[in-house]
Amino acid sequence: MPAALDVATETPLARTRRARRIVRLLGEIHPDARIALHFDNALELLVATVLSAQCTDKKVNEVTPAVFARYPSAAAYAGADRAELEAMLRPTGFFRAKANSLIGIGAALTERFGGEVPGSLDALVTLPGVGRKTANVVLGHAFGTPGVTVDTHVGRLSRRFGLTDQNDPVRVEAELCALLEPRDWTIASDRMIFHGRRYCHARRPACGACALARLCPSFGLGPTEAGEAARLVRGTRGDVEALR
Ligand code: SF4
Questions:
Q1: Can you give the residue ranges of the HhH-GPD domain (predicted)?
Q2: Which numeric CATH code is attached to 42-142?
Q3: Is the pLDDT of residue 231 over 80?
Q4: CATH number listed for the domain at residues 7-31+147-243
């Protein structure tokens, strides 16, 4: 059983090193970690990310092919028939609010950005329904601009790792950015999301099956017995679809 890690006495340098080791190890545990949403361009990713709020990526991926085909441009969203768009988005939940956001985004992109998705955080967060989380997803995966995306998994794991004690996603983002190298910001988020889905579940984390145990001060939060923990692990490298 790993020795308990005392993050209260950890130096900033030790914490930085531990954070980077965690991200490296996560890469070995989840070499397939990547964004699960399907898209071919920045507009499609922006739309898919808006639709992923309170919805699984799998469900979003079922809905988006028809949406992308029907609305191939910002202008198409701006001019969408609201009832028709809402009907297409209904399976993703909160479909009225999401339709509202997409029509508003289409209008804003058309009026202020020449119909293109802007490639800066400051510009993206001016779009209706787009916060830092969505903006960082788009920047990191469509523009190659590193960004830490703090969703429910990244927030939970960051706190369990003892890398932050903040609950506010913006503060978590700032603390992770300070610990990690910018080139790792996007991939660190992807890996943490995969680890949250597969091992470090909100209710019963699979601690006894987790390769991060020695680096994690929360080891023991879930079952530590190997067999019991192994049964909690969801998905495998060849079973990615099951996680989405
Ligand atoms: S040891 Fe447990 S709490 Fe820590 S990352 Fe692994 S599953 Fe999560």
A1: 51-198
A2: 1.10.340.30
A3: yes
A4: 1.10.1670.10
